Amino acid sequence: MCKKKRVPYFLMALVLLLTTLFGTAVPALAAGAAPKKKTLIMATCSDFPPYEYKSGNDVVGIDPAVAKAIADKLGMELQIVDVSFDSILAGVQTGKYDIGMSGITVSEERKQSVSFTDPYTKSVQAIIVRKDSPYTSSADFYTKDASGKKVTKPSFMVGVQTGTTGQLYSDESPDKNGFGSDHVTKYKTGADAVQALKISKVDAVIIDQLPAKSFVAANSDLKILPVPYLTEEYSIAVSKDNPELLRQVNNALNDLIADGTVAKIRAKYIKATTTAQGGDNSNTWWGRMKAQFSLNFVQGQKWKWLLQGLGRTLIITLFSAILGVIIGILLAGIRTTWDKDRESLEKKGGFTYGLMKVLNFIANLYLTIIRGTPVVVQLLIGYFIIFAASNSETVIAVLVFGMNSGAYVAEIFRSGIMAIDNGQFEAGRSLGFNYFQTMRHIIIPQMFKVVLPTLLNEFISLLKETSVAGYVGIVDLTKAGDLIRGQTFSAFMPLFAVAIIYLCIVLLFSSLVKKLEKRLRNSDR
Ligand code: ARG
Question: What is the Å distance from ligand 1's center to 190 Cα?
Answer without folding.
Answer: 9
